[in-house]
Amino acid sequence: MADTMTVLVTGASGFVGAEVAARLTGAGHTVLTLMHHNGDILRNDGRKLAAGPGTLTRITGDVTRPGLGLNEDDRRLAATADRIVHCAAVTDFGLPDERYESINVGGTRHVLDLALAHRTPLVQVSTAYVCGMRDGVALEDELDVGQRFGNVYEKSKLAAETLVRKAAADGLPVAVVRPSIVTGASRTGRCRDFKTVYPILKIMTRGLVRTLPGHYDAALDLAPVDHVADLVTEVTTRFEDAEGLTLHAVGHLLTLRDFSDVLAEYPSFQVTRFVPPTTFSASALPDRERPYYDRVVSLYDTYLQRRIRFDDSRAAAFGGRRVPLSGRPYLRRLLDHCLKVGYLGTPPPRQPAANRKDGSTP
């Protein structure tokens, strides 16, 4: 554990950033939270983030602007940081290309400018899906291997990581954490931010598109937000050990067959049929389904086609732990929470453990 220090966290109001800021203040550190708008920071459980035992200082800025858009006082304050954790990014899909360039790439460039000016160690939060559209095993030390991308978001995150690696080659101390698909809390499934895999779950469970392009052996890696925040925090506080490393913050690996089998356990859910992408035609979908495919599914359907596995041997060696591999019980926690809060409709009657295929309780 590092001595008490000052950490600048960009994107501190985001899903991961808020949890990282909470862990750092909870450990007694001073956290400078860079946010576009000054306001409350909500944790995943809905509580407002408050200082203690460390201190929390909000800084209003904009990563898309040179100097992060800081005024003179905040610029001096940012210069006192012992670490920078760069979480700020746009993660929504389907936005104009310039949004990703401005925030994900330009924002990283401006954060690097600050870090390089003071030689402040940087923890870059990237994504495991810089691996792009390929099958097999993605290694933690791989970056640009000529892959093509499923969307502009992935491409922008590779460009950002490339900038970070160049800064490291120029002498900046850096470490990179690559989360996979960030989802709800490990034990409760609770999620304040229904993005990533959640819109697809809504489409599937409500039968809004009954046939999707995908392989039943394609895999989605769901990383609980607490696991991701724990690793980012540990990299920050043990930076001397993490410097130069790229670590996969991954979690529960589930195939589309796993998704289909688990969804079939819920009487209120529809079960989507997956067909080979080469035989799928969006124009052949029923008229009522096509708008949902065009507006939502088309943004995510490449994730239903990748037979990818993320090696996390370095992350496991660094953190000394791995998320358990039993993904189906975790998926049920996510679904049960979505039902509890009304995101996927109303909760079904509780089922006896015997009705669950692996005997787990709902």
Radius of gyration: 21 Å
Class from secondary-structure proportions: alpha/beta
Number of strands: 14
State mean pLDDT (0 to 100 scale).
Answer: 93
Q: Unreliable runs, pLDDT <50, ≥5 residues?
A: none
Number of helices: 11
Q: Give the helices and strands as they follow along the chain.
A: EHEEHEHEEHEEHEEHHEEHEHEHH
CATH fold label of the largest domain: Rossmann fold
Oligomeric state of the chains? single chain
Structural summary, described in words:
The protein has 362 residues and is α/β, with parallel strands linked by helices. It folds into 2 domains: 6-184 and 221-253, Rossmann fold (3-Layer(aba) Sandwich); 198-220 and 254-307 and 326-355, no CATH class. Helix content is 34%, strand content 17%. It has 11 helices and 14 strands. The protein has helices spanning 15-26, 72-78, 97-118, 152-169, 198-205, 225-237, 239-242, 256-263, 290-300, 313-319, 327-340, and strands spanning 6-10, 30-35, 55-60, 83-86, 122-125, 136-138, 174-179, 181-183, 211-213, 219-224, 246-249, 252-255, 273-275, 308-310. The protein has a 7-stranded parallel beta sheet with strand order 3-2-1-4-5-7-11, sandwiched between helices. α1 links the parallel β1 (6-10) and β2. The longest helix has 22 residues, at 97-118. The protein is globular, with a radius of gyration of 21 Å. The model has no long low-confidence stretch (mean pLDDT 93).
